[in-house]
Amino acid sequence: MEKLIIPSIIAKSQEELEKKIKKVSNLSSWLQLDIMDGKFVPNKSLDFNFILPKTSCKFEAHLMIEAPDKWVTKNLKKVHKILIHYETSKNTSRLIQFVKENKKKIGIAINPETPLNNITKYLNEIDQVTIMTVHPGFYGGKFMPNVLQKVTVLRKLKPSLNIEVDGSITDATIEMALKAGANLFACGSYLIDSENIQQDFFIIRSKII
What we know:
single chain; 9 strands; 8-stranded parallel barrel; alpha/beta; TIM Barrel
């Protein structure tokens, strides 16, 4: 199973989006777009009609918003994978079906407090589970190591499932996430705020090889 670090991007303008994509696009084949509406989480990001610059990277859209159905209907063609939060989706099965019918990948994200049992019925329908290891909304949240127990349980339930951890993934936390059973690692401020991004990426990448 592929182990992959996925840089995550928070942006409040087209200019900021392009600048951050340029900074990280040569690091990974996938990038994460953090979509936030200021309601589900206390921050806004990419809440405008953004245009993605041409790149060889694929994009997953992490929808931290109250109305994921509307966003998906309008923007699905822009991205390759949709991550919906269990806590916000009122029609999870229907949304999963819609995304799959449009030949895109689909995953479910859960907040630290959300029981894993809430999503087990969807595991055979989806490509990925994203487990938040911080309270979502901002770069640099406090890492919550106890949440990694969910990763371990989930890996035993679905050995071949892509399991992503998202939140305060750094050179100090990524090994814990790997040991718990994660194979995808969404990485925000550690890379985005780096003054020597190539060196810091090499350091964090070396932890999962």
